[in-house]
Amino acid sequence: MASSSRTASLSLQFIIVGGGIAGLASAFTLRKAGHQVLVLEKASGPAKVRGGLRSPPNMSRILDRWGLGPELAQYAIKGSEISFRLAETGEKVGAMVFHKEIMKGFGADWLYVQYGDVCSWLYALAIEAGATIRYECEVISIDPYGVSATLSTGETIKSDLILGADGLTSLVRRSVVGRTSLSSPNASQLYIINGSVKTEVVKRHEILRDLLREPEMHMWMGDRYVIYGHAVHGYQDYSVTIAAPLRRPYIRSNGDVEVPDFDVDRNSLEPRLQRLLDLMEISDVATPPSQEPLESLVHDSGKVILVGSAANLIPPCQTQDAATGIEDAATLGNLFSRLRLSEQIPSLVSAYEEIRQPRLAEVLPSELRKQQQVTLPANSALRVIRDSGLRAAMAQAVLDWEQADEELLREQWDEYIRMFDYDADEVADDWWIKWGKLMDVEQQNRQEESIRQQRLSGAQMQISIARVLDRRMGMRA
Ligand SMILES: Cc1cc2nc3c(=O)[nH]c(=O)nc-3n(C[C@H](O)[C@H](O)[C@H](O)COP(=O)(O)OP(=O)(O)OC[C@H]3O[C@@H](n4cnc5c(N)ncnc54)[C@H](O)[C@@H]3O)c2cc1C
After folding, report:
1. Is the C-beta atom of 276 inside 6 A of ligand 1?
2. Is there an atom of ligand 1 within 6 Å of 293 CB?
3. CA 22 to CA 4: how far, in whole Å?
4. Whole-prediction pTM value?
5. 170-182 in b/e burial notation, b at 16+ Cβ within 10 A?
6. Mean pLDDT in runs of 10 for the chain (477 residues)?
7. Ligand 1 centroid to 55 CA: how many Å?
8. Which InterPro entries has this protein been placed in (predicted)?
9. What are the structural domains, with CATH classification, of the chain?
């Protein structure tokens, strides 16, 4: 399906709070759909972070549709496998193989991309489409009824609709659901620490060179923590992500990202991991979100909408967090490209929520479950079951496609298929076919009725004038 060139015949003003992946992507799709877009971002420019993102097929497919195929071909790395290892020994106990026969069915790849690359591509798309992006603009409050955003400078900007794309600690979300939805950290909660090591540095270390050999991701599963790594940016960087509890609360200093005191006994790690952690440059530390999906993605006024991490609450650096932000943007652009009359705005806003809520309600638990499986406590019975299951599955999964056990593949892929096969544009198109056309017909009926009423009252007026004239003529006669 090619990216649609359909534009709305009624153009709205959108303010987007936050210019991360979800904000820039929404700026692009809404501008392309024919709307005026102003992005307000507190940072000084597009993020240049060197950490890595996993782009699952449901995200890669949309990026490709948006015309980013050449950039992906140049910088993204096509994944062939995720290897599950024990963090303490490095032993490979499991594998998720991206058999090309399965991936062909998705029509898109599992890719490793650099966070900064994705931000700069989306920034270029949004600017080229004509969006306005203002950096160093911190939004300090929004008025959901007056539909305005106030900046730290005191300036207030009005619009027709506001998108909250301001991430996990979203200020806009507070006004939509009345709470930040970030649970207060406790000892067992996982913090996400993101960083990278330059490939030239990795190559200088004999024990690390093997990590670059295959386009695969290594997932080192530890005692209540997980560390994963893969190459990004055309093999120029090696991305490392740690999800671990902290020994003491992390205080974010102004601007600089400090090394948090994560609760992992470094001496217990396999030698490669110890070396990687020594070399890693940290680019971001994220606070754990709440595990409850949001009850609403839209403010009662119908004028404020949440997208990306502000809406999905998926822990950062999981498989689907950036992907769902991309899906949100595709859904909004698709729906709002059909806008013809201002009466349709509430229905399109509700449609966004109706489409995205069930998707997020499926993705969030799936992501949390996967995170839980790879961070099971040492010596727990569940961990023993997990490892023996992984070992048994690996014996099958690494086989050629022809020889692999069909039942096992189906079991292994069942959930992934639901995640990867989702096509945000197709879902929005389906919604339109089912409900949107109806909305159009209703609108048309209402318009025809109003024209009929006008004609009727025009005709009645003519009759009255004729009667008055008749009466006058009669009087004269
Ligand atoms: C600097 C940074 C680096 C990251 N690096 C990685 C990575 O390497 N790998 C990975 O998997 N994930 C990374 N993430 C997380 C990842 O971006 C998100 O999990 C996911 O992509 C969701 O994106 P988002 O656009 O919804 O939210 P975010 O990426 O959190 O973007 C939100 C944006 O809103 C801006 N903002 C917040 N509040 C305000 C306000 N009041 N006024 C104006 N602007 C505001 C923020 O500055 C930010 O740019 C990173 C996030 C950030 C912010």
Report:
1. no
2. no
3. 19
4. 0.89
5. bbbbbbbbeeebe
6. 80 98 98 98 91 95 97 95 94 90 92 96 98 98 97 98 95 82 62 92 94 88 95 93 86 65 91 95 80 87 96 88 97 97 95 96 90 92 92 72 67 84 96 84 67 65 57 53
7. 16
8. FAD-bd, FAD-dep_Monooxygenase_BioMet, FAD/NAD-bd_sf
9. 13-186+290-422 (3.50.50.60)
